């Protein structure tokens, strides 16, 4: 009886902390890396940091430029942690992994033409900075649209693979060079809904 209660409590704790698909994930060699509580705490502190920086020019709109699809969940939480009233949400789509799984392929960026960012502060929000090529290419295209400023914020900064000079202006967590999923990040388009982040062993 006691051992059943202990087992049930462990399962409830595991699901509450890491999400419902956690038992499948250990079978395909993924391990927990960052919990939902750690993410939530960091998102609040990033929101405060952004407020402190951009409130100095609160007359100019701030655009949270979300890089779909990976940054969707992060941006949805982040914008609720930002107090600045004239904060806008706009989107672009970047894809390099697609259905190939864990190998990066050809980078395509869509939606830049539809942006209305002239004379606004732009904060590019992406899920992860790996080689840095995505952020660097997005920045170059955004610059041509004459924003008031451009900065970048990534939830995760992978260490050791950068191919570009610039670094993200802000990041949530530095992580080792492992393939990660969850909280917006996919493996073959799945697992984006996991509330925590998992890394391939
Ligand atoms: P970068 O251009 O910096 O090499 O890669 C950035 C993009 O590649 C990210 O926006 C993300 O879509 C994808 N990416 C890089 N590393 C990972 C990873 O470990 N897991 C997943 N799911 N996507 C990744
Ligand atoms: Mg991405």
* Biggest β-sheet description: 6 strands, mixed
> Could you tell me the number of beta strands?
9
Q: Helical amount among residues, as a percent range?
A: 25-40%
Could you say which overall geometry the principal axes of the C-alpha atoms support? globular
Low-confidence segments, ≥5 residues, pLDDT <50?
none
Report Rg: 18 Å
Mean pLDDT: 90
Proportion of strand residues: 25-35%
Question: How is this structure best described in words?
Answer:
- With 201 residues, this protein is of the alpha/beta class.
- It contains 5 helices and 9 strands, in the order ααβαβαβββαββββ.
- The strands form 2 sheets. The chain has a 6-stranded mixed β-sheet, with helices on both faces.
- Strand 5, helix 5 and strand 6 (149-158) form a beta-alpha-beta unit.
- Helix 3 packs across helix 4.
- The longest helix is centred in the N-terminal third of the chain and has 19 residues, at 36-54.
- The relative contact order is 0.18.
- The structure holds guanosine-5'-monophosphate and magnesium ion (MG).
- Magnesium ion binds at residues 67, 70, 94, 126-127.
- Magnesium ion (MG) is lined by residues 67, 70, 94, 126-127.
Index terms:
201 residues, binds guanosine-5'-monophosphate, binds magnesium ion, alpha/beta, globular, three-stranded antiparallel beta sheet, six-stranded mixed beta sheet
List the helices and strands and how they pair.
Blueprint (H helix, E strand, L loop, with lengths): L1 H17 L3 H6 L2 E5 L1 H19 L7 E7 L3 H10 L5 E9 L12 E3 L10 E9 L3 H11 L5 E10 L11 E6 L4 E2 L15 E4 L1
Helix pairs in contact: 3-4
């Amino acid at each position: 009886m006691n051992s059943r209660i202990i087992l049930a409590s462990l399962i409830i704790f595991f699901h509450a902390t890491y999400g419902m698909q956690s038992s499948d994930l250990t079978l395909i060699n993924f391990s927990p890396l960052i919990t939902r509580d750690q993410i939530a705490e960091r998102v609040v502190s990033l929101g405060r940091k952004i407020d402190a920086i951009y409130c100095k020019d609160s007359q100019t709109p701030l655009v949270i430029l979300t890089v779909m699809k990976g940054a969707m969940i992060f941006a949805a939480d982040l914008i609720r942690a930002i107090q600045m009233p004239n904060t806008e949400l706009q989107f672009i789509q970047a894809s390099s992994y697609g259905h190939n799984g864990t190998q990066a392929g050809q980078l395509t960026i869509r939606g830049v033409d539809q942006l209305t960012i002239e004379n606004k502060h732009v904060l590019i929000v992406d899920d992860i900075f790996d080689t840095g090529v995505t952020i660097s290419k997005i920045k170059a295209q955004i610059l041509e649209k004459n924003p008031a400023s451009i900065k970048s914020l990534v939830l995760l900064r992978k260490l050791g693979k950068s191919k570009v000079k610039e670094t993200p202006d802000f990041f949530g967590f530095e992580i080792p060079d492992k393939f990660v999923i969850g909280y917006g990040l996919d493996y073959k388009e799945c697992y984006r809904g996991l509330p925590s982040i998992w890394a391939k062993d």
